[in-house]
Amino acid sequence: MWLHFIPGIQFRTNNAPFKTEMEIFLGKIVGLMKEESLFATQGGPIILAQVENEYGNVEGAYGVGGPLYVQWAAETAVNMNTSVPWVMCAQSDAPDPLINTCNGFYCDQFTPNSPSKPKMWTENYVGWFLAFGYPIPYRPVEDLAFAVARFYEYGGTFQNYYMYFGGSNFGRTAGGPLVATSYDYDAPLDEYGFIRQPKWGHLRDLHKAIKLCEDHLVSSEPTHVQLGSNLEAHVYNKSSNDCAAFLANYDSSQDATVQFNGNSYFLPAWSVSILPDCKTAIYNTAKVVSQRTVADNSFARTTTARETSIAPASWSWYKEHVGIWGNNSFTSPGLLEQINTTKDTSDFLWYTTSIYVDENGASNEEKEGLLLLVSLGHAALVFINKQVVGFGYGNHDIANFSMTQKINLNPGNNTLDVLSMMIGLQNYGPWFDVQGAGPFSVIVDGLGNGKTDLSSAEWTYQVGTEGEHLGLDRVGMANSSFWTKGELVPVNESLIWYKVMFLAPEGTGPLALNLASMGKGQAWVNGQGVGRYWPAYLSPTTGCTDNCDYRGSYDASKCQKDCGKPAQTLYHVPRSWINPGQNLLVLHEEIGGDPSKVSVLTRTGQEICAVISEADPSPVDSWKSNSELTWNGPQVRLSCEAGWLITSISFASFGNPQGSCGSFAPGGCHSDVVSTVEQVCIGREACSIPVTTNTLGDLCPNVLKSLAVEALCS
C-alpha cells in the first residue's frame, strides 16, 4: 500500500519509481540470505531464486512496457550474484539465463523456451483457494498423482506443490476480493498442521516410486512407445538391459490392459503405472493403498474433537455509533474512492450525507422512496436516520454490486450513512493496484421531484469504525467501562462488539473457533487477529458432487463440496496464542449474529482406516531391484499423528467387507480379525498387517479377499 502512494509510480512495468523500489527490495532479500550463508555455494540450502511471479499471464496489458520490464527484472536479478539459478514462473519470454517455468494443474506438455533449460514445474496446485460465498474446492489425489507422474514421464526435472502445507490468512492479511481466512487449499498438511489422508500418504508413495527410478531418469532422455489409443509408455534406459518405465492410460473413461516387454498390465483410465525395473508395476496413480481419515475435516464433531461451549451469560458488548463518530472526519464534494481514502488502515469507510424532503405544508407523513446505490465493492451497510435499511455485497469474481432499497423518509432533513467495507485487497491481475472500491453512484427516486443524484453532493467521511478507534480488540481494553454486561446479550444487531473470557480446552494442539452462529465481522483472541468471518454468506446450492470423478482434466470448479453452506465456520487459533488460564475473545459483528452459540474446539484424536485387497501391490518401500523375496505382498499400514497411539480397533474384517471408511460392514465372506489386529496395533504409533491368508485365515477359499480396518488414535 505504501508503494501505491509513491508519486508517479506504476506497478510492474517500465517505470522508474517502481524499478528503484524493486531493486532495493531484491537487494535487501538477497543480502539477508548472503549474510547468513544460505545459498548453496555458501554451503546453505537455497538452490534456486525467483524474480517476479506469473507476470506472463498479464504482460500484454502493459503494452511495450511489459517486455522491457521483464528484460530489466532479469538483468537486475542476475546482477545480484546469488550464484544459484534464477527462475521466472509462467514467463515464456524469460531471457537467458533465467529459466521459464510452468505453473498449473498439469505441466507434462510444457517445454521451456530453450533446450539448455530444465523442465521445471514451480506451482502444482493441490487444490484451490477458498472465497466467501463459494463452495469448498478440492482436488482428488488420484488426479494430482497422475499429473506428477505424467510430468516425470515426460522428462520433468523439478516439481513443487502449491500448497503442500495449508495455512490461515490471520487478521486482515487475506487477499481479495473476498478471499476467505482459511487458506487450507486441500493441502497434504492441512491448515492446522494435521496430515490429510489419503492425499499425504498416496503422494509419499508416489515420490518413493519415482525415487526408485532416479538413476534411470538422470541417465537418458525418455523413449516413447505407443501402446494403443490414449495409451503410451516412456522408457528411461540406464544401460542396454537396465531400464525404468512409465505406462500411461490418459483416456478419461476407458480402462485398458496393455502389453509391454512381453508382460500384461492393467491400467485404469487416467492413470500411470511406475515400473522401476521395466517389469514390476510398484505403483499406480489411481490405486490408493495408503490409509484414510474417516472425516475430511480435522475438527469434525466425532469422538476425536472436543467442543467447549462459552457460557451465554458471560458475554459483554458495546453498541457502536452509526455514522460520523469522531472529530477526525472530513467533508468533500462527490464520492471518494475508498482505498485511496483509507490507505488500508481499516476495512471501513463511512460515507454520510443528508436527504431533504419538502415539508409540503401541514402533511407530516413519511415518504417512501427508492435508494439506488452502485459500488465498486466489496460490501456496504446502509442506514437511514441511523436505522439499518439494507446490506449489499459482491463476490470474488465480480466485486462490484448495486443495491435497490425501499426507504422511508421524514419531512425535512434525513441522514444517509453508508458503511462501505473492504474484504481483502486485490493482489492478482493486470494493474491490480489501481482497482478501486466504494460507492460511485447514489440516487434517490420516488420522492415526487424526479431522481435526486447524490453522487456529486457534499459528503462527510470517516475512516474506520468507532470500536476500531477505541481499540476494543486490544487486551488492554478488556476491563474498560465502554463494555456493558447483562443477562440478556443483544443478538442479531448490526455494528456491535462482543467480548468474553474463556478457558481453553486442555492439550497442546491447535484450536478452532466455531463462528457458525455469527453473521459477518472480525475476531481476535488475546489481541491477535483470527481473521475475517462471514458465515451468513452461503454458497450456491448447486455445483457440488458427493464423489467427484478424478478422471479427466481438473479445474478449480470441477470438485466442490458444501454447496448451500458457508465457505468457512471454523477459524484457526494457534495454541501459541493461548494463555494457561483465562483468554480474551473479541468479536466485531457487522450485520448481526448470536455470540451465545460460539464455541471452541480441539482435536483429541483421529479415526483412521484402510482397506487393502490381496491383489493390491506391496508397499512401494518394500521393493528392491532383482530381489523377488522382499516384494512380499500387500499390507494394511496404519499410523497416528506424532504423539498419539492406536487405542482401539472398531472394525476389522477379512473377506468382502461392504461400505467405505467410517461405515464398513461385514460382507457375505467375513472373518472377524479384530483380535489379530489389536495384538499388532494397540499401544503403538504405527503398525502393519500383511493381507495374506497365512496371517488372517481363509474362511472363503477361491474368493479374492480384502482386509478393512478402522482404528482410533488418541
From TrEMBL:
<dbReference type="InterPro" id="IPR001944">
    <property type="entry name" value="Glycoside_Hdrlase_35"/>
</dbReference>
<dbReference type="GO" id="GO:0030246">
    <property type="term" value="F:carbohydrate binding"/>
</dbReference>
<dbReference type="GO" id="GO:0005975">
    <property type="term" value="P:carbohydrate metabolic process"/>
</dbReference>
<dbReference type="Pfam" id="PF17834">
    <property type="entry name" value="GHD"/>
</dbReference>
<dbReference type="InterPro" id="IPR000922">
    <property type="entry name" value="Lectin_gal-bd_dom"/>
</dbReference>
<protein>
    <recommendedName>
        <fullName>Beta-galactosidase</fullName>
        <ecNumber>3.2.1.23</ecNumber>
    </recommendedName>
</protein>
<keyword id="KW-0052">Apoplast</keyword>
<dbReference type="InterPro" id="IPR048913">
    <property type="entry name" value="BetaGal_gal-bd"/>
</dbReference>
<dbReference type="Pfam" id="PF02140">
    <property type="entry name" value="SUEL_Lectin"/>
</dbReference>
<dbReference type="InterPro" id="IPR031330">
    <property type="entry name" value="Gly_Hdrlase_35_cat"/>
</dbReference>
<dbReference type="GO" id="GO:0048046">
    <property type="term" value="C:apoplast"/>
</dbReference>
<dbReference type="InterPro" id="IPR043159">
    <property type="entry name" value="Lectin_gal-bd_sf"/>
</dbReference>
<feature type="domain" description="SUEL-type lectin">
    <location>
        <begin position="630"/>
        <end position="714"/>
    </location>
</feature>
<keyword id="KW-0732">Signal</keyword>
<dbReference type="InterPro" id="IPR017853">
    <property type="entry name" value="GH"/>
</dbReference>
<dbReference type="Pfam" id="PF21467">
    <property type="entry name" value="BetaGal_gal-bd"/>
</dbReference>
<dbReference type="InterPro" id="IPR008979">
    <property type="entry name" value="Galactose-bd-like_sf"/>
</dbReference>
<dbReference type="GO" id="GO:0004565">
    <property type="term" value="F:beta-galactosidase activity"/>
</dbReference>
<comment type="similarity">
    <text>Belongs to the glycosyl hydrolase 35 family.</text>
</comment>
<dbReference type="InterPro" id="IPR019801">
    <property type="entry name" value="Glyco_hydro_35_CS"/>
</dbReference>
<dbReference type="InterPro" id="IPR041392">
    <property type="entry name" value="GHD"/>
</dbReference>
<keyword id="KW-0326">Glycosidase</keyword>
<dbReference type="Pfam" id="PF01301">
    <property type="entry name" value="Glyco_hydro_35"/>
</dbReference>
<keyword id="KW-0378">Hydrolase</keyword>
